[in-house]
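Table S4 entry, 3-methyl-2-oxobutanoate hydroxymethyltransferase.
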Amino acid sequence: MYFFSTVTRSCASLSRTARPTHFAARPLLSALQTRHSSHSPLGTPPANPRKKVTLGTLRSLYKKKEPITMITAHDFPSAHVADAAGMEIILVGDSLAMVALGMEDTSEVLVDEMLLHCKSVARATKGAFTVGDMPMGSYEVSPEQALQTAIRFVKEGRMQSVKLEGGKEMAPTIRKIATAGIPVLGHVGLTPQRQNALGGFRVQGKTTSGALKVLEDALAVQEAGCFAVVLEAVPADVARVVTEKLSIPTIGIGAGNGCSGQVLVQVDMAGYFPPGRFLPKFVKKYGDVWGESLRAIETYRDEVKSRQYPALEHTYPMPGEELKAFEEAAEGVKGQETS
């Protein structure tokens, strides 16, 4: 603010004096455009920014049977690139417990930690519809507890909706949140927060009774007011039938291409981790962020060691007479003695 106030005062002063008009514009414009730090992470705005995705947009895609694209993000950079790539939905998933915070599983992450990441994602997301994943322990006690948590995700986390896991047993909770005007994304099939009760990360719905449970759960969350439901780790044919029975979109993850849309964890599909890391069968690796980052950082290390970096073009010049005067003045300055 001080810089711009100074420039404003300088402009006003120039307008009140008899200084030549050709002097005023260019030096001030140059000063305003000069930047000596990587302060703005957003870069150049797109020439034709897309319209903000809303629930109406998602319903329209569903009616047209156009697949809905969804991906996770856990901070400003991952949300920024996902939004720029045209994702319709960005999920701040509790998977960030493992991929961003190094935890053993999603049960460790706390509401306050989720909200910090939600706020970071919200700052970068201009077009996509955002969903915040309510972590284990923040909604199971009662519908009232769930609503209080959901409100925090909207007010503090700046999310447009929330996600929670569970089927028929969570219907009253979903109804409580949805009735309060907060959109809810359901999640049935494999529910990672309940992995201990499920015997681990196992495919759900492989038997007739298991498949019927997935269908009943999906119908229950739809009836309770969910705008869509995630189907995780269920046979593709089961997911296809469930999708046909519902009147809201299904978002598949390990559930085949018969769903209304798909979601993946960005860190998994973009290859953020070194070779050898376990990936579920349904993950397709679309990139190698780890490899490219490793190459770049190793090259930087080598150039620093060899003094190739920084080169002349990476430094700021000093007028020759000023440099000479500085060197002469510096000769009289006593440096720190080393032992």
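Confidence is low (pLDDT under 50) at residues 1-33.
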